[in-house]
Structures are given as structure tokens and as C-alpha cells.
Amino acid sequence: MNHAELFLQYRSLLFGIAYRMLGSLDAEDIVQDTFLQFQKLDLATIVNPRGLLITIVTRRCIDLLKSARVQREQYVGTWLPEPLPTGDLLETISQKETLSMAFMLMLETLTPVERAVFLLRDVFDLDYAEIADTIDKSPQNCRQIAHRARINIDRKQTRYEMSMEQKVRLLQQFLVACNGRDLDSLIRLLAADCKFYSDGGGKATAALKPIFGCDRVISFLSNVMKQLPPDLQVIAIELNGEPSVILQTGNLVAQTLTVRIRDGKIAEIYAIRNPDKLDRLSL
Fold this sequence. Notes:
Layout: H1 3-22, H2 27-39, H3 49-67, H4 69-73, H5 93-97, H6 101-107, H7 112-123, H8 128-135, H9 139-152, H10 164-179, H11 183-189, E1 190-199, E2 211-212, H12 214-226, E3 233-239, E4 242-249, E5 252-262, E6 265-272
Parallel strand pairs: 1-6
Antiparallel strand pairs: 1-2, 3-4, 4-5, 5-6
Helix pairs in contact: 1-2, 1-3, 2-3, 3-8, 7-9, 8-9, 10-11
Domain RNA polymerase sigma-70 region: 6-69
Subunit structure: Interacts transiently with the RNA polymerase catalytic core formed by RpoA, RpoB, RpoC and RpoZ (2 alpha, 1 beta, 1 beta' and 1 omega subunit) to form the RNA polymerase holoenzyme that can initiate transcription.
Domain RNA polymerase sigma factor 70 region 4 type: 101-150
């Protein structure tokens, strides 16, 4: 087996780690750089290619997160992960949950090393000895890091009581209610503590801070709907494991809208308008 064939076996795993680490499709560049580095190595000297590839990807992601810290802190408005189409991903419902906007935002509360340890242990099921080799720390230290990370990560909000088909229908009802300015239906569809997050990155109009509460969210949406162009196309898609739509004018993607459903109601809405995060979604 040559380098390319061996690498291909683990490519989806490596991308999964990199995307969850970075929250952006820069993960593709990290994976490609990893292959280029791997290609230079003598296969005869590699005992554990999977472990080596995970180590290279993880360390590159940690380095990139550390170098981008100041840029992230200076980001204009709310930062949201770059939307990832997941309809064709061969991942379980539980695995897709760890790609959700809500979960990715929770990861933002962790340091790069905490993020790496938490993901490798709790999402990708590596043992502490493997993780220790990956980040060059002792297994005991990795246990402590994982414990700290879990304190900051609240996964109790996860709900699987609705199928994707049911979630899609709820999203469709929401869009119809928005388009028709149907206040009663919006109140019925949205959770009382609904949250609206909008990411324009200073390059597109967006709410600079999250909007909390059903009434405020509805008020904001009503104003937004008045400004939508008449030729707007609404294209259904699954993004980050959640029902979503792409709003497009001509060949230009103007926005994505993703909803998170809790207990049969829309609890969170994520709107991404930053053009830098939409380029790779052009259809």
C-alpha cells in the first residue's frame, strides 16, 4: 500500500478532527498539508500510520488556533462556524451532533489543547495514552485536561426525539410563517427562550450581538423579511447535522439559516452572512 492509499483510509477521520478543531473549512487545507508531510516519510519506519496522521493534524490545528487567537478576539460581531454540508456524511446522529452550531460554539469556550483532548477522547474515542503521544503530555495530564474541558461543555441539551424529516417540516413551517408574517404561528413554533445568532463578520449586515427571547427574535425577523429581494431562492440543505436553507440570489449565496430544535420547538437560529464563509457553498 502506498502513501496515497494509506492516507485515503483515514482522510474522513482527519477532516472530522480538523473541522471540529477549527470550525472552518480551512480543515481541508490542514488535511492536504498533512498528506504532503506524510508523503515525505518512509512507510517502512511507520508503526502506527493512523496515530501519526492524527498527531500531525491535531498539532497543526492547535498551532493554527493559537496563531489566530488575536484575529478571533477582534472578530466583528458574533463568530459562527463556517457552514458544513452534512447530508452525505456517513456519520451517526450522535457524531453529527458534535458538528452542530451549538456544540461548535461550546468548543469555543476551551483552549486549543483542551479542545484537542476533549475531541480525541469523547468524540473520537482515543485512549489517554494515544492522546498523550499526540499532544506530547502525560496520560494523567490528559485526564485532567479532559475533566476540565467537560466541566465547560454542557451536552445535556441534546435531544434526539425528532427525526430529521420532522425537523425539516418544522423548518418549512417556520419559513412559511416568516414569509406570511404569521405572528401566531411564529409564537407557536419558537421556544420562549429562543436565541438568534447572526454572523456578518463586519462584511455583511448582521446583528452584532445574539438576540434572546421569542418576542425579540420575531421582531428582528419581521424587519429582516421586509428587506429580502424579490428574486430570492430558498434551497433546502442539511448543514452541521441540522435542517437548514441557503438563501441565494442568482448564483450568489447571500445567507444560510440553520435551526436547532429542542423539545419540538425551534430553540436556536443561526444566520451566516459573512461572504468569506459562504464562498464554498455556491451552487
